[in-house]
Description:
Strand order of the largest sheet of chain B: 1-2-3-4-5-6-7-8-9-10
Bound molecules: zinc ion
Largest sheet of chain B: 10 strands, antiparallel, barrel
Number of strands of chain B: 10
Radius of gyration of chain A: 33 Å
CATH class of the largest domain in chain A: Alpha Beta
Structural class of chain B: alpha+beta
Shape of chain B: globular
Oligomer: heterodimer
Distance between the termini of chain A: 80 Å
Helix content of chain B: 55-70%
Strand content of chain B: 5-15%
CATH topology of the largest domain in chain A: Zincin-like
CATH architecture of the largest domain in chain A: 2-Layer Sandwich
Structural class of chain A: alpha+beta
Order of helices and strands of chain B: HEHHEEHHEEHHEEHHEEHHEH
Amino acid sequence: xxxxxxNFFDGKTAHAYPVNVTVSGQTLEIIGSDISLQKAxxxxxxxxxxxxxxxxxxxxxxxxxxxxxFTAVAALEQSLGANKGMRFVHKLEQxxxxxxxxFVGLILATVGFIRFGVPWIAAQAAAVTPISxxxxxxxxxxKSIDGNLLQKTKLSATRAAQLQSIFARVKNRxxxxxxxxxxxxxxxxxxxxxxxxxxxxxxxxxxxxKLAKSDLEIEAVLxxxxxxxxxxxxLRNLYQSVGIVLLAGIFVGDFSxxxxxxxxLPALLLQSGYSQExxxxxxxxxxxxxxxxxxxxxxMRDMLENxxxxxxxxxxxxxxxxxxxxxxxxxxxxxxxxxxxxxxxx
Amino acid sequence: xxxDYVYGRPxxxxxxxxxxxxxxxxxxxxxxFTGSAGEYFRIWIVNVxxxxxxxxxxxxxxxxxxxxxxxxxxxxxxxxxxxxxxPIPILKGNLIVGGLFLIxxxxxNFAPLWASAAGLALAVAFPYLIFQSMRFLAFNSSYRNIxxxxxxxxxxxxxxxxxxxLLTIPTLGLAFPYIAFRxxxxxxxxxxxxxxxxxxxxxxxxxxxxxxxxxxxxVLVAIPVFITTQGLLxxxxxxxxxxxxxxxxxxxxISIYIVIIFGSVFLQQFVYARTVNYTLNQSRxxxxxxxxxxxxxxxxxxxxxxxxxxxxxxxxxxSxxxxxxHVKYLLSxxxxxxxxxxxxxxxxxxxQQQSALGDAATDFFNVDVGx
Lengths: 346, 371
Ligand SMILES: [Zn+2]
């Protein structure tokens, strides 16, 4: 049997009645100068402890008790087995050492989540996204660059037709069910480049066509881009960015300002480039395609070297970072060439 | 004690005049914030940690805990406030709003044609969400076990948050103080503590003078800044020699930009302090209670500015400290004067339907609803 002091509020007026609360057996007795009440312990709810704030006990009938006798209320709480989870939370909150542990855990969890969690969720979400959505995303993204970053192709109609038939060959062999389209464009600003949008729209610049020393090299590039499409790399990238924006929202606690960051997502889709993992995966697709059709990955390797060479040339000074570099989605060339060589040896 | 002494006097003393009828004595009660920055910092870190590792689910509990911490430590006449919101309804609200937000951001990004439809839907829903959130917030705030209430209706919410804002267009923004006034009037005029309804007596004239002074201060500060930068720019331009000159101009432009940002923060705080003072001082709870607020604009500007600097240089870690400091200042400058004890205020026992949806939505979009 324990007794503690409290203030009693009847919920009808703002009057505070000083009372003594006694817990005996299964009942709670509230005794004050004008108050005498008995309540079953099943009819009370103890609000979770929070810092050094007054403890609050609610009665089912609408009244409320407030007490600063922390020991007594904690004992009552314990005997009722109430608020186990929140008592643990309170324990964390009370200790600077545990808070430090939480802080470290928070940083590790965030890094881990960005590194593994977000990509995994993004991959799952990308896998179940219907093609019609991919189509909408692609159209909107393509519209935003066609006509300004990309200009009409200067290739002859015959050349264009040849390239289209190469692309048809690639997509029929490995393309799966996507609404493919090869867009031949002159990429004045972005130079020799090729990239794939999520639903299968592949953009290839005249500059890249001219850079290739054979049509097989172009075929290799197209196979690589189809690799990005069938593995849904574009969409996964996009979902990852959305995930990180939302994560930032949790930290900042203000989604509206963070959402502002996210309004340029199609731009993000075009600019961010793929992670190395995605590039290797698409190289696998292209390498496999080449091995099956011509028995060597040499065309892809040569093309990578061509691109690397043109990049060196087009870079007049190291300090000027042009849009070209942002669009280059194919870094780490020597490593990629090595992996392709290894593929062939196997 | 004093009464005993009076009645205990010998009879032959001159008769004291009969006691006046029991006039309720005016009492002044100051608000006070008893929380501490260290304690709130720990609660905050644990909140963020648990929110992250539960993939956002704990956010509802975190919100309840944060609000309750600030409520319980807000004390008036020896008692604290209480936040009554429950995590589960808030979790549901968060999930719905989070889903809608995801759809909205995907639509605005990928289907520009649909984006205007989505924006329109949001604009149509907005006053409803404000209305819901006011009711939710009032109903879930209590003091001495008496709930607050919000008596505004949905129709008026549409008038104040959808129709009136349209006035800014034909008036080229000149109606803005009037709209701000009408919104405050609606919010404060419909607030109640239990059965004690609040009245708001303010007029739009004062709002105009507040915004006009803010504008005047802005211009007074902007002119010298403009002249000096203009001068610097022209001297730079004449001595322009290659890249050095250009980068100088760029850094100058960046510093002007920073000055503008800080300047608008200052002006915002000025308007904030003045409107809070005015709206609270013009509020009467029944004939029983008067609010007094004497926030000083320059104090608030300083607190806001130094908080901003502290948060930036601590990479956000000092934001808990900054929040506590801000609230402490605000509450220490607000008080109420009542006729007699607060004890006699009675509850309003009518039930109100509540949904946490509006609360989650306004929270999500960080909408400022009134005070
Ligand atoms: Zn690639």
